[in-house]
Automatic annotation (TrEMBL):
Gene3D superfamilies: Leucine-rich Repeat Variant. One of its GO terms (molecular function) is L-amino acid transmembrane transporter activity. Keywords: Amino-acid transport, Membrane, Transmembrane, Transmembrane helix, Transport. It is found in: Membrane. GO terms for cellular component: organelle membrane. Pfam families: Aa_trans. It is a multi-pass membrane protein. This is Amino acid transporter transmembrane domain-containing protein.
Length: 380
């Protein structure tokens, strides 16, 4: 869980640094906002800008001990995301009416095996987008009326889904086959409409601020989970200033180093989606369910599986071996009809054994002695 949060925080750092200082893709440099405004300076490098952003923006926001303190910045971040979508959609619609948008390629271009496997690189991005539900419990704990949580979750998911769909649709419609991994990097060139430069700056700056305001909310859950892992029996971290400060500084240091040394946001997203989000979304929930299953059920499954293997699977294997050995030893002496008859007999015996296995699985659990109490508990 902590690994997932840290990678997600690094992703925000990546996008922020790309917008401010620029990025490289396929040997082409896409300038950032600071470089366009002030030219190349010593302080517009990624590491320097991230350090300034951490000290001036992130540090004050992550110092709050209650998630409720971030409600205004969170609302502002949602508004800035809507601004990004509205401007992108407006530019795409204007260019579509002018006929200056090329028809994008709707299907992937498969030229070799490598291009086929590249299709699966989209899965980590999709998984990452729909796994960010880590703030549900902290928000619910701070609500005066917990019954509001259902409506809050529905509204949040609907809003996020709308923003995701609109961003992907209009972004790809606007830039087509030239869409970069970080679509914000596409807004460094002339869009072909009036006030193009102003719109580019508004889009990039607004979304950059949006990410800056989202980061403290993700960091809140990261700090809370890590503290619970390291200090499970200590008092809540909000009541221990020394522990609060130590955990916060350590986490920010790891995130800052990761954002500076990982080469691109695409690499970060692949690790986030392929490792962390798969664990959080699929493996961990299943593991929790298995852990909390009734111990008697686990005992029953263990005994039943052993009996199944001993009573049914082993005879099937022995039957197959007993028929194959003479066939292989005397294959040259057997004619075609004998081989066919042996194969038919083998198939019938194997099918009979398989039917016994299916019948065993269909029988009620009371067939195995020592587990009759399971039915009584189920009836209760």
């Amino acid at each position: 869980m902590e690994y997932y949060f840290e990678l997600l925080s690094d992703d925000i750092f990546f996008v922020t640094s790309d917008v401010l200082s620029g990025t490289w893709s396929d040997g082409i440099h896409y300038s950032g906002v600071m470089e366009e405004w002030f030219g190349q300076q010593w302080w517009d490098k990624r590491s320097v800008l991230l350090l300034l952003t951490t000290i001036l923006v992130f540090a004050p926001l992550i110092s709050f001990k209650r998630l409720d303190s971030l409600r205004y910045t969170s609302a502002l971040s949602v508004g800035l995301a809507v601004v990004f979508v509205v401007i992108t959609a407006g530019v795409a619609i204007v260019k579509l009416r002018n006929g200056s948008i090329e028809m994008p390629r709707l299907l992937p271009e498969l030229v070799d095996q490598a291009s086929f496997w590249k299709l699966f690189t989209t899965v980590p991005i999709l998984v990452t987008a729909y796994i960010c539900h880590h703030n549900i419990h902290p928000i619910e704990n701070e609500l005066q009326d917990p019954s509001q949580m259902k409506s809050i979750v529905r509204t949040s998911i609907t809003l996020c889904l709308s923003v995701y769909l609109a961003t992907s649709f209009f972004g790809f419609l606007l830039f087509g086959n030239h869409t970069l991994d970080d679509v914000l990097a596409n807004f460094d060139a002339d869009l072909g409409i009036p006030y193009s430069s102003l719109l580019n700056d508004v889009v990039r700056v607004s979304y950059c601020i949006h990410l800056m305001l989202v980061f403290p909310i993700i960091f809140f859950s990261l700090r809370l989970n890590l503290d619970g892992l390291l200090f499970p029996y200590a008092i809540p971290i909000a009541f221990d200033n020394r522990r609060f400060f130590s955990v916060t500084v350590a986490l920010m240091g790891f995130i800052f180093l990761g954002a500076n040394f990982v080469p691109s946001i695409w690499d970060a997203f692949q690790f986030t989606g392929a490792i962390a989000t798969v664990s959080v979304g699929f493996i961990f929930p299943a593991a929790v369910c298995l852990i909390h299953l009734h111990s008697r059920l686990s005992e029953f499954l263990d005994v039943a599986s052993k009996q199944l293997v001993r009573q049914e699977i082993s005879p099937i294997v022995m039957t197959v071996i007993s028929f194959l050995i003479p066939i292989l030893q005397h294959a040259e002496e057997l004619n075609k009809s004998l081989i066919e008859n042996s194969a038919t007999t083998l198939g019938r015996v194997a099918w009979r054994r398989f039917s016994n296995v299916v019948e065993l699985l269909r029988r009620p659990y009371q067939r195995h002695s020592g587990f009759d109490h399971l039915k009584g508990e189920k009836d209760k």
